[in-house]
């Protein structure tokens, strides 16, 4: 059952629409991430759920109850902010106990719940320490404990890891996920970090310019993006424009920069129709043994890409690079386990294959055209 429902929610600030007709359900005990670039509206959604902003129109529900006009302190929510928001003049235990005291919990019950929650977040024994005696990761654990100690129905996390270094981010997000699963708490996690969203979530809700563009499991978001924006925003990819040259129920042929790619037919696009095409770098497979093979048919349905390797990035477990095809199109590639597999040379000729099951495409829309226009503008400015 859905624990959170947002129905046709709109939020405007003057002439600016921050959230536009958003519909979303979050299941009981589910962790869902709102993922998107800065300014897309994800934090505004969180603030409306928290009660810090009121929707211009539409309804917000928690536990089947409309909460549009319910004050924040009566919404059964706990919230963790990006900047911790820990009271600097209070000890750890007083910070954590703050919400309980507002709810008139006192005495032994208060101490028991504070100690239990600090133990849950790995801060047992830190009760008397002051915030200036804690690391960034410990401060974030205090903030998490303060949100959990009131036993909220819903936990809201607003970019909670952005102020931490890489190693701490990994550690804390593992702890957040572990605690969330142990408590079975419905959680909304706001982030612009794709890796965070993909690793921690049951589902990911991708937002762009005030709108929700796709809600799916992390793997579906990654492997089956429904738009050029999602394909380009979530993970590394080669994103291209193409034109359908032939199609049947099994395969669709797409001309991309003079290269004919074959894709499993998933969406019917008429011959001559324009599409966006996404190919993940790990699916552009280096195949030196196929250099003399001729055409897609000889490659058992895989397109053959020949060109010059522009650059290589040795990254230990993988080697990343880019190949410029004979027709001028650039494709990213990635080779795992490079110590035991052949790797091309920078500046050398190389052959790659791209199999139909690894080519994702979709009918071009105005929103998709805007993605390519923005990319072209950024490239022009960079050059």
Topology record:
Elements: E1 2-13, E2 16-27, E3 31-35, H1 42-50, E4 57-62, E5 65-66, E6 77-80, H2 92-102, H3 107-120, H4 136-148, E7 154-158, H5 166-183, E8 186-191, H6 194-200, E9 203-208, E10 211-216, H7 218-223, H8 228-233, E11 238-247, E12 251-256, E13 259-264, E14 274-279, E15 285-286, H9 295-298, E16 303-314, E17 318-325, E18 330-336, E19 349-354, E20 360-363, H10 366-382
Parallel strand pairs: 3-8, 3-9, 6-7, 7-8
Antiparallel strand pairs: 1-2, 1-4, 4-5, 9-10, 11-12, 11-14, 12-13, 14-20, 15-19, 16-17, 16-19, 17-18
Helix pairs in contact: 2-3, 2-4, 3-4, 4-5
Under CATH, the topology of the largest domain can be stated as: Rossmann fold
Strands, count: 20
Instruction: Give helix and strand order, one letter per element, not per position.
Output: EEEHEEEHHHEHEHEEHHEEEEEHEEEEEH
Share in helix? 25-40%
Q: What is the assigned CATH homologous superfamily of the largest domain?
A: P-loop containing nucleotide triphosphate hydrolases
Biggest sheet strand order reads: 6-7-8-3-9-10
Low-confidence stretches: 293-299
* Number of separate structural domains: 2
Instruction: Name the CATH class of the largest domain.
Output: Alpha Beta
Can you tell me the CATH architecture of the largest domain? 3-Layer(aba) Sandwich
Indicate the mean pLDDT: 92
Cα(first) to Cα(last) distance is 52 Å
Per DSSP, the total helix count is 10
Q: Determine the strand fraction and express it as a percent band.
A: 25-35%
Structural class: alpha+beta
